[in-house]
Amino acid sequence: MSIDRAVLAFAGLMVLLSLLLTHFVHPGFVWFTVFIGVNMLQSAFTGFCPAAMIFRKLGLRPGTAF
Predict the structure, then answer these.
(1) Structural domain boundaries in the chain
(2) What is the model's pTM?
(3) What is the C-alpha to C-alpha distance for residues 61 and 41, in angstroms, rounded to an integer?
């Protein structure tokens, strides 16, 4: 698996998790969803993604974006 695919899978998992937390635990968890969206937008424009750095250190092969 490449870093690009791992980042996409991780982001999708986090969005789903935040939506579940919002629905079942507390509506304030919607801010977690907002944080994930903002992080995805900034990484699209800047190329900086903390999750990609972690996946790189874990030994995943580089992709085209990260």
Answers:
(1) 3-57
(2) 0.88
(3) 23
The residue type found at 16 is: L
**20 Cβ partners below 8 Å, 6+ apart?**
none
Query: How many C-beta atoms lie closer than 10 Å to residue 8's C-beta?
Result: 15
DSSP codes, 1-66: -BHHHHHHHHHHHHHHHHHHHHHHT-GGGHHHHHHHHHHHHHHHHH---HHHHHHHHTTPBP-S--
Structure tokens at 61: 């092969």
pLDDT in tens, 17-27: 999 999 999 99
* Cα distance between residue 22 and residue 61, in whole Å: 34
- Residue-wise pLDDT for 42-62, tens only, equals 999 999 999 999 999 999 999
